[in-house]
Amino acid sequence: MVGAKLLRIDDLVRVETQIPITLCKLEKVFPPSFFDVMVHLPIHLANEAMLGGPVKYRWMYPIERWLYLLKSLIGNKAWPEGCIAEGYIANECMNLCSRYLHTIDTKFNRPERNYDGGLKKSEGRLSLFCQSGKTLGAPKQRDLEANELEQAHIYILKNCDEVLPFLEFHAEDYDKNLKTQNCGVVVVGETDKHENIDYYGVLTDVLELQFTGRRVVLFECKWFDAYDKTKGVKIDEYGIV
């Protein structure tokens, strides 16, 4: 609990009063040799947290990691201080030079081990081929089965930006025999009280009007009719307008 980001004083006070009672109950179960200084330590943790705050701002793990790094610089055990000073200065020099020598690879500016090259320009190809990835180990080649190849092909098409518009809008006749319906459309409208409300409809047909070098796509939907009271705005049992 003392390692949490946020500490509550009332919780710490309750823990401080309950820890001695818990230790007394443990003394009835375990032998005296079990109770060393580490078992006695929790008595002071709650009071220490109330005085110093969360322990993550005071613990020694970062300092111990830094001391381990300094000890790894020792090459001559007869002069450990000199080895640490020399290694520290060399590290600072490399850090300073790496900010100006961009063409030289150092441990500060070299690419990551698992860097896959990032996004590349498609150059007229599909956006799916912009990032091919990189293997972490030795690849193994094998032939895909028919069902695996079909699943992979469908997955690639559904995650390609160029094919996405053709998958988003389906007519009602196309989806009427399918378990998954994807023919619904929604438009955000505004009421007389200047409140936003969602109006839902069903896509029945997609029309493409071709002009000279241009084209416009229109959607024909089953929509509400504000001028006819019998076909106007309706709210179903689920609250959908």
Automatic annotation (TrEMBL):
Pfam families: DUF4218. Residues 3-114 form the DUF4218 domain. It comes from the Eukaryota. This is DUF4218 domain-containing protein. It comes from Solanum bulbocastanum. The lineage of its organism: Eukaryota, Viridiplantae, Streptophyta, Embryophyta, Tracheophyta.
